[in-house]
Specification:
This protein is 36% helix and 10% strand. By secondary structure, it is α/β, with parallel strands linked by helices. The strands form two sheets. The chain has a five-stranded parallel beta sheet with strand order 2-1-3-4-5, with helices on both faces. Strand 4, helix 7 and strand 5 form a beta-alpha-beta unit. The chain is globular and about 55 Å long. It starts with 22 loop residues before the first strand and ends in a 10-residue tail after the last helix.
């Protein structure tokens, strides 16, 4: 699995008119939040955060998007910085807290997707082997950091701010297509991912966040229903969904594609649809403008409230792992299936 690094700056959010009708959506996270697409090797506007913003803006017309996600972010770097640059802020969390202070009482929504890179950056070798002791240690530190992040955001929010974090999909299901060994590895990955998502869910709920069921949106545990996939024949529904919604079956890359980000945006919208949401009204629904074209990007990143994007590049020697991946992985075939290195010279 490979990811590239971005250098976003803190979004400058200008008040509309006299500011009375302006509210804000702040999105934080890793490459799941930035919409990284391997076909163009860039962060793009197919991100679930952008698609969710388009939906939410239909019910709250004055809503502005402060887009802070950082590709390759971990829970540690989100707190302490070091992966992406934020002008006048030391880290993504610091940038978010400053934005929330600046617009106190006007932040309607905060979303967060982070945690996968904590363990995958450290505990999976390029050959796909997994260090169980490392995994156990990193999972504990990830949970502690995630609680700190979510708790700080929750404390900084207003009474009407809605907070939603996400679980992760399971791209290792794509190993099913590699034959008997891959099918066994795919089956073994499911309970690991489910356990990790349970832990993530517990942390979010303990800090007052609602949880977007991304794993459910991807049918991650449905091995029973059989679906015909062109070129692969009959496969379990969860495998079919991974092939449909990510690049895992075509580019051996776990990142969600445009349809995958649309599904993730739907999972977030589902928990923001009840009537106590800011600007309550009809549930947000998709529109043509809510689904950008795959690969769309707007150049160098100096994020605005509409989410301008970063040029991306990775270290020539450091293997980095997808933020769209999962918090724990299966060893052997499944892990090896996604392990790859990415070099700056390969930029699109």
């Amino acid at each position: 699995m490979a990811i590239v690094l971005g250098t976003p700056g803190l979004a400058a959010a200008d008040e509309a008119g006299n500011g009375q009708d302006t509210t804000y959506y702040i999105s934080l996270g890793d490459s799941l939040a930035t919409g990284y697409q391997p076909d163009v090797d860039k962060d793009t506007h197919v991100a679930y955060t952008d698609q969710l913003y388009a939906r939410l803006k239909q019910r709250t017309p004055g809503l502005k998007h402060i887009r802070l996600g950082c590709t390759a972010e971990t829970t540690e770097s989100l707190i302490n910085g070091g992966t992406c640059d934020y002008p006048n802020a030391k880290s993504q969390l610091d940038a978010a807290l400053k934005a929330m202070a600046q617009h106190h009482g006007k932040v309607a929504y905060v979303t967060l997707s982070v945690g996968a890179n904590d363990m995958l950056l450290n505990c999976v070798s390029p050959a796909g082997t997994l260090d169980a002791a490392c995994l156990n240690s990193k999972s504990q530190s990830m949970a502690k950091n995630l609680a700190q992040i979510a708790g700080a955001l929750r404390k900084a929010g207003g009474n009407d701010t809605r907070f939603v974090g996400s679980t992760y999909h399971n791209p290792f299901l794509a190993a099913w297509l590699q034959g008997a060994a891959g099918q066994q590895a795919a089956k073994e990955s499911a309970p690991l991912v489910r356990a990790a998502n349970t832990g993530i869910t517990q942390v979010y709920k303990s800090t007052g966040f609602k949880v977007a069921d991304v794993a459910g949106a991807f049918s991650s545990d449905d091995f029973t229903t059989q679906v015909n996939v062109p070129g692969a024949g009959e496969v379990p529904a969860n495998v079919a969904r991974i092939c449909q919604l990510t690049w895992a079956c075509t580019k051996q890359d776990p990142h969600p594609n445009a349809d995958g980000h649309k599904a993730i945006a739907g999972a977030f919208a589902a928990v923001l649809a009840d009537n106590d949401a800011p600007g309550a009204g009809a549930s947000p629904t998709p529109s043509g403008s809510a689904t950008p074209e795959a690969g769309t990007d707007t150049g160098a990143n100096s994020p605005t409230t509409n989410g301008d994007l970063a040029e991306t590049g990775a270290s020539s020697s450091t293997p980095v792992v997808a933020g769209g991946g999962l918090a724990v992985v299966a060893v052997g075939t499944a892990a090896g299936y996604f392990a790859r290195r990415h070099r700056t010279g390969e930029k699109g």
